[in-house]
Design a protein that fits this description.
This protein is α/β, with parallel strands linked by helices. It folds into three domains: 211 residues, Four Helix Bundle (Hemerythrin (Met), subunit A); 91 residues, Elongation Factor Tu (Ef-tu), domain 3 (Beta Barrel); 124 residues, Nucleotide-binding domain of ferredoxin-NADP reductase (FNR) module (Rossmann fold, 3-Layer(aba) Sandwich). The chain has 17 helices and twelve strands. The strands form two sheets. Strands 1, 2, 3, 4, 5, 6 and 7 form a seven-stranded antiparallel β-sheet that branches. Strands 10-9-8-11-12 form a five-stranded parallel β-sheet, with helices on both faces. The two termini are 31 Å apart. The structure holds flavin-adenine dinucleotide. Flavin-adenine dinucleotide binds next to strand 5, strand 6 and helix 12.
């Protein structure tokens, strides 16, 4: 049911029907070349990360900072190197989510988020090691008790920048604590995000500690210049890709909501039109971060996948009401201006390495799968898992696509609270529905819980990790 519509857009929607569903030619070398290119690109990324770390450690040792004369010297040396490396990981942490398109294409938004999480933990561990070894080492050198050393460091004025460092450390601890799954679940997303932004303040404060207090940067001009360049490069990436690029895209594409269509209970599609959308180079399976410029919505961007292959004239997203913002999608005024950051993600045909494919969608996870089906050719099987028949979205579109593109489509309907429902998508069930599953590339998309379990079952059914492509609907 169409909830609201820009009538000038009706003509476009009509033109869209069949042309969107028509099959395209089979991709020749099923993503193998792209895979090799990505593997080479990833090696370059790792070489840059480890190369920079090596240069830093070398500059540090070369500057005579590694001293072993007494236990106090050893401890303070460990404190300094852990401090330097934590500052480096903090910069990497910022770059990982700077939305640098090249990095995003190589690694994928999902995997970058995982790297970001683990790097964050490693960064905090190094900061804490830095604090403990500093206090302990200086206490030995000064022949003070640990409490006296702490009060000297914080209040004595001997070590400048210590107060800012302490506040910075407290902010980083707050960020990591609020990101622990069990705590994060209890926090509103907006609060978690606001606390997360404090990490930037923490890193800035740590920098003001590093410059005046860090001996290696005060005394070694080369090391200081190297660090400054790293910080400036990080700042440039953040400003360019998080601020300038979205602003330029907003002016360039002039996106607006053209129609709002009800797809099922609590699920609506938004059709978004704009200028020159082919220049976005969006692929089926990708997602954007969408910001709707109306009152009460403009301050938050939400990730939603394209639910139809982009055709250069319009983009479609389909949203399930799962929280406060998504519940109000159906009321979106026609003509609302939209800013979209992206496209992001490697849940695309380009990641495919085999001719045979299995696509598994759980609930609203059908959105990128639906779009991918317009592009994927070859031996394709689709499993769409829902709780009730009412929850099946795009039924007609999927049936039409299955017919025109000749792929196998299974709707698996049932409540997972029942004994039978629990067996669905188990390794045995997967092998029963798709006997040659081990010979396929498998794409899995849905809510995080489902995606994690199904990915595990797919592996147990004989598919190697490198042939599984998962998109979890949570960052
Ligand atoms: C890559 C990706 C693609 C997605 N594609 C779709 C899609 O096609 N259709 C669809 O219905 N849903 C999709 N989602 C899920 C969708 O982003 C969330 O359901 C939505 O952001 C919830 O917003 P809310 O304010 O209504 O809910 P809230 O009650 O505020 O939050 C519910 C949960 O949604 C997540 N969330 C909330 N806000 C954000 C945000 N700004 N950024 C990231 N996560 C957030 C958090 O995990 C939070 O715990 C996708 C998620 C990801 C990560």
């Amino acid at each position: 049911m169409i909830l609201s519509l820009d009538w000038s857009y009706v003509v476009e929607m009509a033109a869209l029907d069949r042309s969107r569903l028509a099959p395209e030619p089979l991709p020749s070398a099923v993503g193998v070349r792209q895979h090799r290119r990505r593997a080479a690109g990833l090696s370059v990324v790792w070489a840059v990360i480890l190369g920079n770390a090596a240069v830093m450690v070398w500059l540090w040792i070369h500057g005579g900072n590694w001293t072993l004369k007494s236990s106090g010297d050893v401890l303070t040396s460990i404190a300094r190197i852990t401090g330097l490396l934590s500052a480096y990981l903090a910069l990497i942490q910022v770059i990982l989510l700077a939305r640098v398109p090249a990095l995003e294409r190589l690694v994928g938004f999902d995997r970058l988020s995982v790297w970001h999480r683990w790097n964050g933990h490693a960064c905090l561990d190094l900061v804490l090691a830095h604090v403990v070894f500093s206090v302990w080492g200086y206490a030995l050198l000064d022949k003070f008790s640990v409490p006296k050393e702490i009060s000297t460091m914080l209040g004595g004025g001997i070590y400048p920048g210590m107060i800012t460092a302490t506040v910075g450390t407290a902010l980083l601890i707050a960020v990591v604590l609020t990101s622990i799954v069990i705590v994060k679940r209890r926090l509103r997303y907006e609060w978690w995000y606001a606390v997360h932004l404090l990490a930037y303040a923490g890193i800035a404060l740590a920098w003001f500690h590093q410059i005046p207090t860090g001996n290696e940067l005060v005394l070694d001009k080369v090391a200081a210049a190297y660090w400054r360049s790293l910080v400036i490069a990080t700042l440039v990436l953040i400003v360019v890709f998080r601020l300038v690029a979205p602003a330029v895209a907003a002016l360039r594409y002039r996106l607006r909501v053209a129609a709002v269509v009800e797809e099922g209970p609590g699920v609506v599609s938004l059709w978004i039109t704009g200028r020159g959308l082919d220049r976005l180079h969006a692929r089926p399976g990708q997602f954007f971060l969408w910001r709707f410029l109306t009152r009460g919505r403009w301050s938050k961007a939400h990730p939603f996948s394209l639910s139809a292959a982009p055709d250069g004239r319009s983009l479609r997203i389909t949203v399930k009401a799962l929280g406060d913002d998504t519940a109000r999608m159906g009321e979106m005024p026609i003509g609302t201006r939209v800013v979209a950051e992206g496209p992001f993600g490697v849940f695309t045909d380009g990641s495919r390495r085999r001719e045979k494919v299995l696509l598994i969608a759980g609930g609203i996870g059908i959105t990128p799968v639906r779009a991918l089906l317009q592009e994927m050719r070859g031996d394709v099987v689709v499993i769409y898992r829902v709780v009730t028949a009412e929850d099946i979205l795009f039924r007609k579109e999927l049936d039409d696509l299955a017919e025109t593109s000749d792929f196998e489509l299974h709707y698996i309907v049932g409540d997972h609270a029942t004994d039978e429902g629990r067996t669905y998508l188990s390794p045995d069930h997967l092998r029963e529905v798709v006997p040659d599953i081990a010979e396929r590339d498998v794409y899995v998309c849905g809510p995080p819980g489902l995606t994690n379990i199904v990915t595990r079952h797919v592996r147990e059914a004989g598919v190697r990790r490198s042939h599984i492509h998962a998109e979890r609907f949570a960052l």
